[in-house]
Amino acid sequence: MIQRIQSIYLLLAAALMATFLFCPIAQFDTPDGLYSFTSQGVSPVRAEPAAPTSEAGATIAQTAIFTPTWGVFALGTIIAVLSIIAIFLYKNRPTQARICMINAFFMVTFYVVIFLSGYTFRSDLAATHTSWTAYLIMPFVALVLDVLAYKAINKDEQLVRSMDRIR
Question: What's the CA gap between 80 and 39, in Å, rounded?
Fold first, then answer.
């Protein structure tokens, strides 16, 4: 049945991951300005005015940069889609449980990719300070919900197998 508790867990996990894709992950304070790191990329939030050059007082304009982070966005999208797919695999509980475990592995990998990307961008931008946002808790909550769904799926499977033994 689709109205089991694991369906709610998986739906909440998918909603959290989809929401996280559009939230800021970190901000980098650099001598050039403030940069925002989201799952779509790194972009300047506020640029410091450029210093005048020696040539007749002309200034060098700050160019707006945007560095895409496709790996973070793609992995987050895959996690959200796998959670939705797992909801509709309710007739095949072993496959649904397998999808949940694969999704949990992707969530742990997601954190690794986020922190590696963050520290890479920190060194590339020569950031003096990095502030991670509280939104980083969302994938962790989604991971906990995914594990709870896995346990509920296994509990249902054990119940079905015990009913088969009674017959």
Answer: 14
pTM of the model: 0.81
How do residues 82-128 score in pLDDT, each as one tens digit? 999 999 988 888 999 999 999 999 999 999 999 998 888 888 888 88
Q: Which two tokens stand for residue 119?
A: 């520290």
Task: Read off the pLDDT of residues 19-58 as tens digits, 9 standing for 90 and up.
Answer: 999 999 999 888 888 888 988 888 888 655 555 544 544 4
Please spell the DSSP secondary structure of the chain, one letter per residue: -TTSHHHHHHHHHHHHHHHHTTSEEEEEEETTEEEEEESSEEEEEEEPPPPBPTTTT-BPPPPP--EE-HHHHHHHHHHHHHHHHHHTTTT-HHHHHHHHHHHHHHHHHHHHHHHHHHHHHHHHHT-SEEEE-GGGHHHHHHHHHHHHHHHHHHHHHHHHHHHHHH-
Amino acid at 21: L
Token output for 66: 């945007």
Q: What are phi and psi of 132, to 5 degrees?
A: -85, 140
